[in-house]
Amino acid sequence: MRESTTLTLLILLLLGLIVGGIFLWSGPEAAPVKGDDQAWQSTERVAGSIEVGDRPSATPREAAPPAERQIPALSENQVKGRLVSGEKGLPGLELDLQFRNDQRRMQSAWTGVSDADGRFLAMDLPPRRYGLKVSGPGVPQGLEFEHFTLNPGHGFDLGDLRVPDAGALWGRVLYPDGEVASGVRVYQHYSINSLNRHFNLGADPDGEDADSSVMTDAEGKFAFANLTPGQHRVLAEVEGFVLSEVKFVVEEGVDGEMPDLLLSSGGTIQGKVFAPDGSPIPGARVVPFPFNLGTFAERMAQDCAADGRFRLAGLGPLDEVLFEAPGYVSSKSRYTNLNTYADSVLIELKPELTLHGRVEGLAGAKATVEVRPENLNVSVFPSLRKAVYIDHPVADDGTFVIEGLLERDYRITAKAEGVGKSETQNFYLSSGMEPLVLEIERRRNI
Fold first, then answer.
1. What span, in angstroms and rounded, lies between the C-alpha atoms of 240 and 235?
2. φ, ψ for residue 16 (rounded to 5)?
3. pTM score, two decimals?
4. Cβ of 213: how many Cβ atoms within 10 Å?
5. Which residue among 231, 266, 276, 302 is the one 20 to 30 A from 85 at the CA level?
6. How far is CA 182 from CA 12, 21, 215, 383, 437, in A?
7. End-to-end CA distance of the chain
């Protein structure tokens, strides 16, 4: 009896398990219960689904605010980044990606505006080295971020770029005797990547290419506000005095006092510029180049008088002076002993000569010629330096012309693409010289 009862219970239990399994297999899926964390967090994450940890609400969700414009994934030839202050993105700021062109000047490659979250994306950029300048409300004047290189086949993510708070500087300009220098123009510029770039003193102070500048007041004081933190170069220019420059570090949010700019009377040279026959040269000019300031001093340049005489004041002990005239090879000299006395400097400028010639044996190939002076320091002849040690093109008929040369000894060689080159030929260039003839020697296959 006991065995029969036990068997009956086992059969009933087995039937119950079978029926329950059938119900679970075919019945509707049970939804997780609100408050059942374990059941909700096991929900799969798929595109558009609720993320792990979120919980369904008994009431419909409120409409979400419009999403910000999303920056796409970075591809080759693209640069992206984000302008921030703290952790907050800065919208509406103007951006300018620049590169240095063949004339060594910065040129824009892309301009844009940061979006509502401070982000930006520049596309279709050729591989090269770039700098990024930023401007807009609340941005320090001349803000520039460190240069970077965009390599072929790659993109570049600049990440978060913090826009700093502006700083300021002020100071005084004094004459050599300690008197204040009022009405003096003072220049400043900042560039984290170009601390040795030129001041453009020849530009209109109100023009596009001008450096930031102000005039000193009656007490010789000047001030610059809204400056980018970092090293700035400050320069005072007064006719008849040596250009005075000071480098000063502007701190973020600080109004800094810089050392006085002390003017120096410097030295003076005077003399005469003349042609080989002793006559004055119409249009001759004298242009000083301050030593180690990287400064264009065109404002201090002067034309020689009708008799060729000049007088140049305010020179530093290592300044260079360029003498030039149309149709003549320019000459540059450095003066270390600057005293004033009559006709202390006598400059003879040599006329420019032109070399004509012809290359034979080209067989239709493209060719070039290179000319080199014998035993000459070309650094003291700036215009000559542009004519030598470079490849000059040969015309399709084999002729060539090289201008701006001095009368002296040279060596010349011609090269033809895929054909060969000529023997080096020595010659003396003089006025009225007959055209040179160079013969290309064909390369022999080994």
1. 15
2. -65, -40
3. 0.56
4. 20
5. 231
6. 113, 101, 8, 39, 64
7. 114
